Structures are given as structure tokens and as C-alpha cells.
Amino acid sequence: MARKPAGNRKLFEDVSEGIGPRSETPTGGMIDAGRRGARGAVRTWLLVLFALVTVMIAVGGLTRLTDSGLSITEWRPLTGALPPMSAAAWETEFEKYRAIPEYRLVNSGMSLADFKTIYWWEWGHRQLGRVIGLVWAAGFLVFLAMRKIPPGWTFRLLSLGALGGLQGAIGWWMVASGLSGEMIDVASYRLATHLGLAFVILGLIAWFVFQLSREERELMQARRAREARLFSLGTGLMHLAFLQILIGALVAGIDAGRSYTDWPLMSGYVLPPMAFDLEPAWRNFFENAGLVQFIHRVTGYLLFVFGAVVWWRARRSPHGDTRFRFNAVMAMLLVQMVLGVVTVLYAAPWQIAIIHQLGAVALWVLILRARFAARYPVFRSVRGAA
């Protein structure tokens, strides 16, 4: 029998070795090759920031509801971290408060003990802002020094810190509006700016957490199956919800939620009486309690109806996870609408009002979560495994 040429035998051996088992198992594709960063650790850090910002929104709401926001009349980012440490220091702070319009027109005769109550609310609000800044700075610098930030994420994480610094400046801009003239509260449009930026920061953190919860290669594969129409509807719902949050801040800024306590009418009318009494006319959209509450109600109805349309469209999604997330949005919309009606009927007591505000946080995050699923759907097997 003729022997096979050595060259042919060598070629056969090389091919067989190439298709045989290998001693090393590949750990990822080209997308995840190289330095992938500590995605899990960064995500945990962002979740801590998310929780702190949520608490900050709640404490800010309680500070507003207890009329405590003007109790500290100076902005001292560093030295203001320490509260008054002596009786003389407390008297000095109280004297500064007695010089502003809110004390003269609303709280004249307030005792030092009552002043301390509202002071601690505002001090706690500002202190929590400092804590958030420190948590962000410590986490960012540690991840940066250890080179654990995932590729492409440095600017995104840095932007959170920049927005946090801007939020502190806007907070003082808001407080300053109530320290002079005849203002007994902060300007409502400045309050809306302050709250709106808080929700922007919260939304960015949530979106980043969603992205870091899945590998880059998985997100790129999922994006090929994105539901463009549903994502567009989710984006519209997000924008309308954000507008409603801003209008809600205007309501809170002028205590409009305590002005008309009947529903569905307002003092027996669809459009409340004296809705355009202020001059010039544009002031009514910011300062007229009846008109501002009316706009908040109508926008709430529109948000609910549009949310129902988006939910109905989401029912046709081929992805069960996406349908579930939009179901959660619709359920929270219903809960939030009921909370809004109850808040009005009971003249916005702080216990109900703060639940309504936290409901806005929950709805905001659920909308973002559903929108993310429309852009990056989760694939499941027949058995339901992701």
C-alpha cells in the first residue's frame, strides 16, 4: 500500500488540530475585548446615588411643605455644613431670618424653638446635597484612579457631577428669590427649574443603571430588534410626564393645591373664576392659583389618555418583558391620578402631598424603564429564561 505523502499528512493534522477542542475558552467577543471596566461596581455606586437623589427629592418636598426653605438666608457651601453650635450662634441665625419678608408677613412672633424646627429641615436638605456630592466625587475619583471606568463612560459619569454642582447653584438662585422684596416664598418658576433638574439627574442615573445592567455586546444585539415606533411613543410619554412634573412644581410653589378642593369641577366651574385676573396676562400661568391648578389637572388627564394609547400599542410587542414594563407604567399612571385627586380633595396635607411627589418619581423611572425596553428588548426562550 502506498504511503501518504508527509506533506498531506501534516496538512491533515494541522486542520484536525484546528477543529478539535482547545485548552482555553474564549471569554468574550471583540466588543468586550480589552479593558471592560468594573461595570457591576459602577452600577452599584450609581444605585447608591439614585437612592440618595430620591431621598433628596422627598426631603426637598417636605422642606417646601413645611415652609422651611427660607430659614437659612446665606449660601455657604463649605462653612454652612456646620449648624449653629451655641446659643449666640442660634440668635444670630434667627436675627437674619427675622430680616426677610417671610418672617415679617407670615411668621411674625415666631419663637426660637419654632425657628429651629424649620432651620433643621433646610439644613438637612442642604447637608444631603453635600453628601451626594461627596459620594459622587469619591466614587468617580476612585474608579478613575483604578482605571475601572468602562470605556466610553468617563464623560457620562463626569456629567452627573457637573449637573449636581449646577443643581446646588440653582438651589441658591431659587432661595434668593424669596429673601427680598415682598416675596413670602421662593419664585415658583425657579422651584420648577430646581425640581426639573433633579428629575433630569435622576433619569440619567436610572438610564445609566439600565445600560450597565447588560453587557455592551448584548445591548448592540438587542438594538437591532428595537421597536422604533414604541420607543418614539415612549419618548413622547417621557416628555409629557416631565412637563407635568414642572407644572406640579408651579402648583407647589404657590400652594395652588390648597386653593380649589373640589373635583372634577373647580368651585363649581370647569375653568375656575378669576383665572386671568393678574396683569400682565402671562403672570397668571405662573402665579394664579386657579389657572395653574387647572393646567395641572388638564395635563394630568392628557398624560393619562396618552399613556393609555402607548400602553395599548405596547400590548402588540412581541417581547413579554416590554409588555410587562408598559403594564407597570399604566398601573402607576392610574395610581398617580388617584393620588392627585385625593391630594386636591384633602387640600394637600404634607403626608398625602409627599406620597404624590414620590409617585411622580416612581412613574418617571417606570416610563424610562419601559422606554429602555423598547430600545433594547430582552429576548426570552420558550421556557422564559432571559
Task: Describe the structure using short key phrases.
386 residues, mainly alpha, 2 domains, 13 helices, disordered N terminus
Q: What global shape is seen?
A: flat
Oligomer: single chain
Which parts are unreliable, with pLDDT below 50 for 5 consecutive residues or more?
Answer: 1-34
| Discrete helix count | 13
Note the beta-strand portion.
under 5%
Please count the beta strands (DSSP E, at least 2 residues each).
Answer: 0
Q: What is the rounded distance between the termini? A: 57 Å
- The sequence of SSEs as H and E is HHHHHHHHHHHHH
Specify the structural class. Answer: mainly alpha
Largest sheet, strands/sense/barrel? none
Percent in helix: 55-70%
Radius of gyration: 28 Å
User: Could you tell me the mean pLDDT?
Assistant: 88
Number of domains: 2
Transmembrane segments: 45-65, 128-145, 157-175, 187-210, 230-254, 294-314, 326-348, 354-374
Subcellular location: Cell membrane; Membrane
Enzyme class: oxidoreductase
Subunit structure: Interacts with CtaB.
Structure description:
- The chain is mainly alpha-helical.
- It has two domains: 36-213, no CATH class; 224-386.
- Helix content is 66%, strand content 0%.
- The chain has 13 helices and no strands.
- The protein has helices at 6-19, 39-65, 87-98, 101-105, 112-145, 154-176, 188-212, 216-223, 228-253, 284-287, 289-314, 320-345, 350-375.
- Helix 6 packs antiparallel against helix 7 (188-212).
- The radius of gyration is 28 Å and the shape is flat.
- The chain starts with 5 loop residues before the first helix and ends in an 11-residue tail after the last helix.
- The relative contact order is 0.10.
- It is found in: Cell membrane; Membrane.
- Keywords: Cell membrane, Heme biosynthesis, Iron, Membrane, Metal-binding, Oxidoreductase, Transmembrane, Transmembrane helix.
- Belongs to the COX15/CtaA family. Type 2 subfamily.
